[in-house]
Amino acid sequence: MSRHETWRTRKFWEKTGGLLIEEFCAVTRGINNGTRLIDGVIVLNEETKIHDKNFFDIENRDVICIQTKQSRLGMYIMGQALFSSELLKKFKPKSIKSVLICGKDDEILNPICKIYGIEVVVIGENERI
User: Structure pTM?
Assistant: First the structure.
């Protein structure tokens, strides 16, 4: 993650608690596909700390899938949020909540996120720790 994204992901995580896995490896590189990393996965009901690896067994656990961008809510990050939660399904978590963190909202795109069950969290530059 970038210096513009990491602090936003962690600021959100500080409110939810749980185990934060940064750059969660949802797909490893193969002959016919690329690596797919998710900015953050929070495993709820676990000790509140940052995991030291980019993978954790999430089977039968409640998780929050996070995609973060510093910019305004846009279609690129919307796609990441939607499809990242789909990629997590193969790990058989009990539940998946998809959260999109961005620096600015968009009044047209935000309602579309709600249709697909994606929560939009705006954390502006002025909220930096």
Answer: 0.93
